[in-house]
Amino acid sequence: MQRYDVIIIGAGPAGAIASKTCTEKGLSTLLLEKERIPRFKPCGGAVSTSALSHVDFGIEQDLIERECYGERVHFENHQIEVRRKSRMAILVSRDKFDAFLVSKAVDAGVELREVEKARSLNQKQSTIVVETNKGEYNAKVVIGADGVNSIVSKYVREPYKHDELGLCIAAEIPVSNAEVDEYIENAVDIHYGISKSGYGWVFPKEQHFSAGVGGDLSSMKNSRSMLLTFLKKLGLSTDVVTHAHLIPSGGYEREVCSDRIILVGDAAGFVDPFYGEGIKYAFISGKLAAERVVESYENDEFSKSALDSYKRSCRTMFGENLEYSLRLTRLVNKYPNIFFRLLSSDKKVLDKGLEIVAERMRYKEYRRWLIPRVPYFMLKALLPF
Questions:
Q1: Domains defined along the chain, listed by start
Q2: Which of 101, 256, 265, 357 could link 16 by a cystine bridge, Cβ 3.0 to 4.6 Å?
Q3: pTM of the predicted structure, to 2 decimals
Q4: Taking Cα atoms as reference points, which of 184, 201, 202, 204 lies closest to residue 193?
Q5: Pairing state between β 118-123 and 70-75
Q6: Confidence at residue 182, expressed as pLDDT on a 0 to 100 scale
Q7: Quick one: 364 exposed, middle or buried, by C-beta within 10 A (0-12, 13-18, 19+)?
Q8: Does an H or E element contain 74, and which?
């Protein structure tokens, strides 16, 4: 049985960054991925500039299909658009982007094993054994980066509750770059009111659009029909192959550690409930988990009580922000006609919200700023000055 210092299960953004950080700190690191890389990932592919600030390397230019400098928002018959001078995000195809992240980990010295699925974990007195479809490996600690359907999470906490999950369904629509530019150039297109606690989107890519609809799992029972209706309304092709996937909602109090196990990224539930951004928190949690593992090796302490300092670090870095995002999401969906109308009719409300994406404002501050101004903004929308 091969032995490693740390085993990371799942080679998405969180797993790639966690494994890269571990091996750079001198730990022998195994990265397990159940599929062959690159693998298809249904995702809009917008990676915020603030997310990129949490990695210590640049993104290769040929991975960047478009740059985003603005956002256009719709709700019912309302529509506004905000543009900024600084780049808000890059638009990528996740198969290529994720493969690039993994290549950075492998270049650093990580051992990657593809098409190898973890089946079970077995705690021993001083080690943990990972059984896969191809063999067994042991280490003193495992990092679970295996997404919303995480195998590793079963050894840490109960499964996600139904109301803690969302569902996204997306399609890639081939068009010319001229058609992309004509529809929306270097910005993202967001449509509220399509689903509960979610939105529809059209993101510009290289010779295609990424379009989709996401929302609470309970509101997405007829998801394919919902997406095709959305595409038809926008005049986009409905002759598409669709892909659906679950996403967790962040902001809930959850266990993310047990003895010798740490969860990161979607496996830990670190996704913004309002915007649906997960890559930023995958990067941050992956790095924080690796740093915690290094500290555990220094102290030879891998108990839950020791690893829980990782949870506290996540709380400090972004946990409270996700909690307030969840609070705002619940408020907005209680009064959608008020808040979605504001977002789609008042540039100041939208522009201030984009400060959250840029990490220049937190949801707690935005909520405090927005709520007292709601009557004024509603009056302004009803009676333009």
A1: 2-67+89-160+251-325 (3.50.50.60), 162-248 (3.30.9.10), 335-382 (no CATH)
A2: 101
A3: 0.95
A4: 201
A5: unpaired
A6: 95
A7: middle
A8: strand 70-75
